[in-house]
Amino acid sequence: MSTGSPRQLWLLPVLLITVIATALGGLLARDLYSEPVTPPPATVVATSPSPGPPEEQPGPADVRGTADAVVHPLYHTLRKLLQTYFNAVNAKDYAQWSSAVTYERQTNQPEQKWRDEYASTKDGNIVMHRVEARGDGTARVLLTFTSTQAVTDAPQELPEPCIHWNVVWAFSTEDGEWKLAAGPASATPQHEACG
C-alpha cells in the first residue's frame, strides 16, 4: 500500500497553514478597521442651556450642537461658519462677517448699515439644534442664541436689551464654499425678551 510521494505529504500542511493565516489576517483586519468612530467633540449639549442671570447674558460665545445636529455630515463645516459669523458680530469685524455670508447678503447689508444695526450687539448661548441639507447645494439650520444690545439697536418690534432667538437660517454654496445665505427662513425669526 502506497502512502503518497514525499512532495504531496508536505504540501497539505503548508496549504493548511496558509489558509489559517489568511483567515486570522482577515479577522484582525476586520477588528482593526471597525474601530468605533471617535465621540463627538465637547461642543455637544443635550438641550438648549438654561439662561443665566441677566448680568451673565448673552452667555458663552462658542457655537455648540445638540446630539441630533452633531451627527449630521455638515455639522462641523456649518458650525465653523457660524462661529466665524458670531465672532465677527461680537468683535464688530465686518470683513470677517462678510467672509461668512453670501454676496447677496453682503449686498443687502452694506458695511455702514451693518455697523449701525450691530453697534452694541453681543451674541452668545449659541446652539445648533438641527441641520437639514438639500441636494441642490443648500441647507438649513435650526438655531437658538441670545443677544444683548442697546434698546435702540434692538428690533423695532421687540425693543429689549436681551433677546432669545429661535431661528432657521439658510445656507448655500457659493464659489464652492458654504455661506450663510439670505432667504425667507433667515428673514422671519422667532424671538422673545429674556426673563
From TrEMBL:
Domain of life: Bacteria
InterPro entries named in the record: NTF2-like_dom_sf
Region annotation (Disordered) ranges: 40-64
Protein name listed in UniProt: Uncharacterized protein
Protein species of origin: Actinophytocola algeriensis
